[in-house]
Amino acid sequence: DLVPGASLEFELDNQPARVSGTVVAGGRPLIGFAAIMLARAPYDIADAPNSYRVISQDGRFEISGVAPGEYRLAVANNLSQLPERIQSGEKITLERGEQRTLELKLR
After folding, report:
1. What global pTM score does this model have?
2. How many CB atoms lie within 10 A of CB 98?
3. How many Cα atoms are found within 13 Å in the side-chain-facing hemisphere of 61?
C-alpha cells in the first residue's frame, strides 16, 4: 500500500531482454499450446500476467520487454496446469538486453 507523502521509485530500462523459441513434442512443433514465462521465486503465476503467449502455427513463441533476472519458462495447454508445471519449468537467467532463443520440449 502506498502511504500519502511516501516516495515511489522505479527504474526504466531501454535494453530489456527477449526470449523466443520453439515448442516441440516428438520432434514436431506444437500448435495451440501456451508459452508462459514466470518471474522470480516463488514463481507465482500472478507475478507474470503479461508473459502469456500463444504459440504460433509453426510452434514458435516470443516474449519481449523482459526485465533482467531469473525466470522459469513452462508450457501448458491450459492455465489450470501452470501452477504445477511452473515449479518444474526450465530455469533461465536473463541479462540486460539479452536475446535468448530456446527449444522447449513438452514432457
Report:
1. 0.73
2. 15
3. 25
Q: Which residues, 6 or more positions from 96, have their beta carbon under 8 angstroms from its beta carbon?
A: 13, 15, 16, 17, 68
The CA-CA-CA angle for residues 13, 47, 20, to 5°, reads 60
Residues (pLDDT < 50) of the chain are none
**C-alpha to C-alpha distance for 107 and 102, rounded to whole angstroms:** 15
Residue bearing cell 503465476: 45
Compute the distance between CA of residue 41 and CA of residue 87 in angstroms, rounded to an integer.
Answer: 10
